Amino acid sequence: MIRTTxxxxxxxxxxxxxRRKELTELRANIQEHNGALRSRVLIRSAVAILYSHWEGFxxxxxxxxxxxxxxxxxxxxxxxPNFLGLIIKSKFSKIDESKKISxxxxxxxxFCTKMDSRSNVPxxxxxxxxxxxxxxxxxxxxxxxxxxESKFSTRLNFIDxxxxxxxxxxxxxxxFDVTLEEYLKLHDDVISLIELFRNEIENxxxxxxxxxxxx
Length: 215
Known about the structure:
Number of strands: 0
Strand content: under 5%
Radius of gyration: 20 Å
Helix content: 55-70%
Largest sheet: none
Number of helices: 7
Structural class: mainly alpha
């Protein structure tokens, strides 16, 4: 269980480091074979790998953050609304699965008697990138985690047009040409995105943004 901010930062760093090493090695290989057929093949492969590392990092680091928040065992009344909403959503899912007409009783009891009790924030298998981390899916994850959407506002079009769309074409076996210059810029932009997401999660944990702020 990830219980401290230092543990969270360390886990995220470990995941980030191996991804950057792999991407850096791939970039070096592509530049070494610039202009050759091998370079064009590597670039197409690299676009798909860049996307996979972006999606993988978002999914893993988000799950780590949820685990960290869950380990704090805050009282329900002290949780930020987005995390309380996650708990409520899980309870609604159980009610829907039970098919019992009395299923709402448990939810009513939660609101009436459990707000002072310690929380059990669900964190396993919660983050769903839908194998297609579009800007719409990313925004949903940001809202779930209570992260600042505005930090990504200028990146949303890039994510859909320059990252997800080319990856989908390539993954579906379609021809999609990417020049060396386009690939190098894509590489830098994806690394920047990963760093931005990392910063937002780490800042949220250090700033205890998972705690409710009374207004």
